[in-house]
Amino acid sequence: MDNQVEEIKSKINIVDIINRYVALKKRGHNHIACCPFHGEKTPSFTVSEELQIYKCFGCGVSGDVFSFLENFEKISFREALEELAPLAGVTLTKSVAFTKEELVKKTLLSINEQVAKFYNYILLSHPLGKPALDYVLNRGITLKTLKEFNIGFSPQNPQFLVNFLTKKGFKTNDLIASGTFGVSQYNHRLYDRFQDRLVFPLSNFRGQILGFSGRILPSSKNQNLAKYINSPETEIYHKSNNLFGLHLSKEAVKNQNSVIITEGEFDMISPYQAGIKNIVAIKGTAFTEDQLHLLRRFTDTLILALDSDFAGSNAARKSIELADSLDFDIKVLVLGDKYKDPDEAIKADLEFFKKQLDKAIPIWDFIINSQLKINDPNTIKGKKEILSIVLPFLIKIKNSVIRSDYFKKLADEIGSSQEAVFEESKKYDNTTKTNITFPITPKTDDQAPDPSKTVKFEELLLKLIIGARNPVKLAQKLKKYLETIKDRRFIPIIQQLLSIDTFEPKDFQSNLPSENQAIFQSIFLEVTNNPIDSHTRLLEVQKTIDQIDSIHIKDKLNLLNQQIAKLEEQENEVELEAVEKEYNQLVHQLGKIQTKRN
């Protein structure tokens, strides 16, 4: 198996794989992007084609193509192996054993796939689905879209689907675990939770069906039931981290670096069908932390197309605070009083929707404007209402400059001073800023154990040499420091540089002891991200050597000073003369270095 892992690595390019998920840009020898594992505005996520690795200099996460898929897609090593093998043209001769959890997941995914096919068949090809098909076609949804989203219909027959799956060989306990079936209290038989409903498969961003959402038809006799229901929480479906349609829209979201957030399925489907592809539905009016983490992998811009009064809820306020803490640029698509939701707007006036999309305004402007629209800022009551709604949002803005700007805007709009608004805001600042944590590897590998100046200059010198066109030749300047080097992690790297004739990064890395590979990778990625010309490099090398030599000389002078003091006490003139001679020689050397630097 290890041989096949290496074969896969040798036949695929990590840049091509990661670029499927993250928009990489070429910089120097490497490719960079904003890290998909933590929120940032300045790219620090680096992918090396030469070493076939990635590393984020912001949060410290790093690894190879397998670990990237494991971290990004939240899958096991075995699943990553099975996903990459076909791309590399490798047939796996020996599969990795399934864990118990993986077997459960595999079974539930298989059930859901069959359920979706069944529902879709009923909707598109069976007489029982005709009323539902007429309904969606009348709403302007095409057959092509119904197939693309795998939308279906569950007939009003509690046993129809159960019998279908039982014949397929699925066990009762597994059907119950899938969440699609309940158990009757009267006869203890399984029944389909979604019967007599239009059914939308709920997929993860990889396209695997995790659960379902069902909607009662307007023509249904069961109007006393909940209009919408979702699958309950299962081993594979968790409502808090699901985004409807992301498996279809993720490429557009990544390429356009923005995502339109809608509430329900039709609000997402109608714009998507009309050609507006960078869109998802959160199935509610507030997004969760998990949903935001997922979206942050693909974009840093949210365009909210939610109910116009969404800002009035505590859940929405929490959502916006979370999004801001993750450095999202948050905007609002304003439909005004003309249309109640994106689905209605798209059907009535596509060009209007596109125009409003282009004019999407910052979330903080929308919050202020929406309150000014419904409250009179010239009255005491109006001012109080505006402040009570707007300030809880503004006080949570992460960036202090932007926060100050909006305090000023709010003060101007209600005819008050910025100082007074700021003072009033203190009433709402009664919670600690949300701290977001990320499921990533902590940055520990390459933290230097010795923070002294010497270590910093040693690392700088090593970086300058590794980044050179011919690091082997330049490495000869390191030979004299092997005995005195403070950071012992650098020694194997220097020794290997001194022992080779040609420098090939990937081979060099693989020949290092495993405990030294991470520090080499970090240095190599950093220096190849920021190339400098040969002349500047040589000057910097000499300046750094002078700095290291100066520190060594000063350390030695301190020791000699102590030795001289002892010899003077002992009145040992012979040894004192020799030590003073050495001291003066070192002072002379230090003077020459300092003169050269000046």
TrEMBL record:
Pfam families assigned to the protein according to its UniProt record, in alphabetical order: DnaB_bind (PF10410), DNAG_N (PF08275), Toprim_2 (PF13155), Zn_ribbon_DnaG (PF01807)
Keyword DNA-binding part of the UniProt annotation: yes
InterPro entries in the cross-refs: DNA_primase_core_N_sf, DNA_primase_DnaB-bd, DNA_primase_DnaG, DNA_primase_Znf_CHC2, DnaG_bac, DNAG_N, DnaG_primase, TOPRIM_DnaG_bac
GO molecular function terms listed in the Swiss-Prot or TrEMBL record: DNA binding; DNA-directed RNA polymerase activity; zinc ion binding
GO cellular component term of the entry, any: cytoplasm
Coiled coil segments of this chain: 550-596
GO BP, one annotated term: DNA replication, synthesis of primer
Keyword terms of this UniProt record: Coiled coil, DNA replication, DNA-binding, DNA-directed RNA polymerase, Magnesium, Metal-binding, Nucleotidyltransferase, Primosome, Transcription, Transferase, Zinc, Zinc-finger
Span of domain Toprim: 257-338
SMART domains: TOPRIM (SM00493), ZnF_CHCC (SM00400)
EC code(s) of this entry: 2.7.7.-
Name of the top EC class for this enzyme: transferase
Gene3D superfamilies: 3.40.1360.10, DNA primase, catalytic core, N-terminal domain (3.90.980.10), Zinc finger, CHC2-type domain (3.90.580.10)
Known cofactor(s): Zn(2+)
Listed NCBIfam families: dnaG
HAMAP family found in the cross-reference section: DNA_primase_DnaG
Protein's recorded name: DNA primase
Biological classification of the source: unclassified sequences, metagenomes, ecological metagenomes
Gene from which this protein is expressed: dnaG_34
